[in-house]
Amino acid sequence: MGSKIVSDANAFVKFLKLCQDENKENCTYMDDISVLLVKKEELLHDIITGNEPMFVCEKAQPKYEPEVTETTADSSAVEDTLFKVEQDPGPEPLSVMKARQLLSWYTMAHNPNMPLVEAPRSLHPLWVRCDKSDPCATAWLGVEAVYSGNKTSGVKLYTVSCKGSPTADETSFTTLDELKQEHEKRHHASTVATKGYAQYNLFCSLKEESMMFESQSSVIASLTWNNVEKVLECPPLSSKASLNIKVAVGDIRSPLYQTHREMEFLLALAEGLRTGETEWLEPVETQSAVDLTRSLIEELENVAQGVPGHATKASEKQKAKTDGTAAFTSMVIERGDLDFTEQLWEKMRKSVTSYQDITECLKIVVKAVKLGKIKPWIHKDSNSTLSKMIVQSYQQQIDAIPLTGLTPANMLLELGLDKIRKDFINYLVGKELTTLNYLSYYLDTEVDLQEQVIRVRKLHHLLEILGTCSTFLSLPHDRLFLFTQSCLQYYKSSDYNEDHVFQLQIKPALISYFYEKEQPFSWAMEVSSGQGSKEVKTALYLSDKPLVDHICFDLDIPLDVSVNGESEKMSYYRTMVSCSLISFT
C-alpha cells in the first residue's frame, strides 16, 4: 500500500510539473480529472488575493459522440444529440475524498522527510473543486508550499465551505467571537488581529434621483479597516478606501449626453470612411443640411454688410445656447466662442444624411469664400483643410480644393475633430485638471485621421468618467486632478475600453454620505495570527452573489445574478475560509 501511495504521488506531481513547464492551460489526468493552469484569481473571486498562477483540478467533462442513425426522420433525436454536444455544463467538482487525496500527494512531494517522493523545485499552488459531500460542506480545498529561503518548510492548507441558502437573517451569521474561537481552536494563537472588508455600489444610493446610470456603469467603493467589532459593521472613517469606476458612454442621464451624440456622428462618419459603408444618424434638424448652410452664409453676409440687428442676434443666440447648457448640467463642455467652421460642423452633423449633402454644403461654403462674400473668423490654431483655405482667403490666395470622391467627407471629419478637441481642451485645461503638454498625445494632428478619431474617443471616455466623479460624487479638485493624470496615462498605451475599471484612492469621509445609508453587496471579516509566510487566517465572507460557481443553491435564478431585488434587507451567501499551516521542521 505504501509503495502504491508513493508511486501515485510521484506520477501526479510529475504530471503537474510537466503542465507547468510546458505552460499547458488544460490537461487531463487519469482520464477523469481536468487540470487547469489559471493565471488570474477569477475562479476564486475574492477568496484569495494576488495573480499568482495556480492549478485548478475539477472533474473532466465527458465527450459526447453524435449517434449515427440510418434515417433522419426523427429530427428531435438529432436536435437532442446536438444539444448534448454543444451545451456547456460548466465546471464540475470532484468528491471531497478525491480532493484530499490530490492534496496529500502534493504535500508528500514537498515534504523533505519523505525522500521516496521526488520533490519538485517549485510548483504553483493547487486548488480542487469539491462537491460539498462532507459535513462541513467543503466547496474548495487548496494547498501551497511555504518556503524558508530556498527550502520548503511546510505547506498551507485551505478549506472553503459554504452552507445553506442566502439569507437576510443576521442571527444565522457567524459572529466575530465564533470566528475567533474557530481560529484559536485551529491555531492555538495567543493574540489575533481582525480586519474588515466591505464593498458598496454607490449608484444604488440614487434610486430616487434623476441622475441614475444604467447597469453598464458602476462606481464601487472598496474599504478595508482593522479591529472589527461586529458582523456587517459600517466601515469607520479611518478605513482605507478606493473607488473602482467603470463608465459606459451614452446614458441619456449623463451630463455629457449631448457630447456623446456629437461623438456618435463623428464615429459614424469615420467608420464610413474606413469601411465604405456609412450608417447615417437620424437628423436632429427639420431643415435640410443645404438650407442650414445657406442660412449660415446669409447670416455672415448680413453681418459683413452691416445689416442692423444681425450681429447682436447671432451673439445673443450663441449666449442663450451656452446659458441653456449651463442650466442643464454642472459640467459644461460646449463653448460660447465657436468660430465659423465649428458652427458649420454643428449644423451639418445635425442634418447630414448622405455624402451628397456634405459635398453640396461644402461647395456652397467654398464658393462664398472664393467670391469674397464672407471672411469669417477662424481660431488661429484650427487645423482643418477648410480653416486653412479661409485663412488663405484673407490674402486672396486660395489653393484649389477638388470637392470630389471622399474629400468632402474627410474635410467634414477634420471639422469635427477640430471642434471636439477644442471643447475637451476648454474643459480639461480650463478646470486646471491637466495641461496642454499632458494632452499632446491626444491632440497630435500629424497622425492619420482614423488615429486622431481613436484618440479623441479616448478623451471623450475620460470626460464621461470625470462627469461621474464631479457631478455625481462631487469629488474635490485635488482628487479629480490626480485621477485625470492617471486616466490620461492609461489611455496613452491602452486600447479604448469601456469595460476597464479605473481605480482612485480616496478618503472615506468624501464618500461616507453614499455608503453609510447603503448595505454592502460584499462584506468580510478576517481573523489572523502569525507573521510573514507563517501567517494564517480564518475568514467569513457575506456576498449578494455566490463566491463558488460550481455548486447549486436552492434558487430559481442564475448564479451570476444578485439574490436581492427591491427588498429592504440584503440577503447574503455565506462563505467560510480557513487555513492550516503544516510545518515540516
Distance between the termini: 26 Å
Strand share of the residues? 15-25%
Estimate the mean pLDDT confidence: 85
Largest sheet properties:
13 strands, mixed
Strand order of the largest sheet: 1-2-3-4-5-6-13-12-11-7-8-9-10
The count of strands amounts to 13
Helix coverage percent: 25-40%
- Radius of gyration, taken over Cα atoms and rounded to an integer in Å: 32 Å
Low-confidence stretches: 81-85, 207-214, 309-329, 556-561
Please trace the helix and strand order, writing H or E for each element.
HEEEHHEEEHEEEHHHHHHHHHHEHEEE
Categorize the overall geometry.
Answer: elongated
User: What structural category do the secondary elements indicate?
Assistant: alpha+beta
DSSP helical segment count: 15
Question: Overview of this structure, please?
Answer:
It is a single chain. The protein is an alpha+beta fold. Among the domains are: about 1-160, no CATH class; about 260-445, no CATH class. It has 15 helices and 13 strands. It has a 13-stranded mixed β-sheet.
Which features characterize this protein?
alpha+beta; 585 residues; 13-stranded mixed sheet; 15 helices; elongated
The gist of it:
This protein is of the alpha+beta class.
Task: Give the topology, please.
Elements: H1 2-21, E1 26-29, E2 33-38, E3 54-59, H2 75-86, H3 96-110, E4 126-129, E5 138-148, E6 151-161, H4 176-187, E7 193-201, E8 218-226, E9 240-246, H5 257-275, H6 289-304, H7 310-328, H8 340-349, H9 355-370, H10 385-393, H11 407-430, H12 440-443, H13 449-472, H14 477-493, E10 502-506, H15 512-515, E11 522-529, E12 536-543, E13 573-583
Parallel strand pairs: 3-4
Antiparallel strand pairs: 1-2, 2-3, 4-5, 5-6, 6-13, 7-8, 7-11, 8-9, 9-10, 11-12, 12-13
